[in-house]
Design goal:
The chain contains six helices and no strands. It is mostly helical.
Length: 174
C-alpha cells in the first residue's frame, strides 16, 4: 500500500475516532471530569490528522488546501485571536483556555481550523463516494453514541456510578 493511501486511511479513521470518541471521553484521573479530557483527545487527533495530511502533501509533492468562501473570515479571526493572546493580561489562559472551559483558548481554535481544512481538503477527491461513506459512518457512529449517553446520564441521576470514576468526584447538576 502506498504512503498516500496509508495517510488517507489514517486521516479517515482519525476523523471517525474524533466524531465517535470525543463525546464519550472522560477519565477519573482529573478533577475536571469532561472538558479537559475531550480537549486532549481533540488535540491528539488533530496532531495525528495534521501530520498525516502534511506527509501526504510531501509524497504527492503538492499543497492540498481546499479554498472556501470562509477563508478570509477564518484568517481574520485567527489573526485577532493571536493578537489578543499576545496582549492578554493572562497569556496562559488565552493560550490554553480557563479551567473547566478549555475549548476557548488559542490552541483549540487552531485545532478546529486545522481540522476544518483537513476535512475539506482530504474528503474532496472522491467527493460523492467519500461524502456518502463518511456521512453514513458518522451517522451510524452518532446513532450508537446517542444510545450510550442517555444511559450514562440516567445512571448518574439515579446515583449509580458504574463507569470509570469515583463517586466523590462527580457533582450532579439538578
Amino acid at each position: 500500500m502506498s504512503m498516500v493511501k496509508i495517510c488517507n486511511r489514517v486521516i479517515e479513521y482519525s476523523f471517525y475516532a474524533l466524531f465517535l470518541l470525543v463525546p464519550l471521553a472522560f477519565t477519573s484521573a482529573t478533577s475536571e471530569l469532561f472538558e479537559l479530557n475531550k480537549m486532549w483527545l481533540v488535540w491528539a487527533l488533530t496532531i495525528i490528522i495534521t501530520s498525516s495530511w502534511l506527509i501526504k502533501m510531501v509524497f504527492q509533492r503538492r499543497i492540498l488546501l481546499c479554498r472556501t468562501p470562509l477563508d478570509i473570515p477564518i484568517v481574520l479571526f485567527l489573526f485577532f485571536q493571536i493578537i489578543s493572546t499576545i496582549f492578554s493580561l493572562d497569556p496562559h489562559v488565552s493560550l490554553w483556555g480557563y479551567y473547566s472551559r478549555f475549548n476557548g483558548g488559542l490552541l483549540s481554535i487552531i485545532s478546529y481550523i486545522l481540522l476544518y481544512y483537513a476535512f475539506l481538503s482530504n474528503f474532496q477527491t472522491n467527493a460523492v463516494a467519500m461524502v456518502k461513506k463518511s456521512l453514513f459512518s458518522i451517522l451510524l457512529a452518532g446513532k450508537k453514541k446517542n444510545k450510550a449517553l442517555p444511559f450514562y446520564r440516567n445512571c448518574q441521576v439515579s446515583s449509580i456510578y458504574c463507569v470509570f470514576h469515583k463517586q466523590s468526584q462527580i457533582k450532579l447538576l439538578y
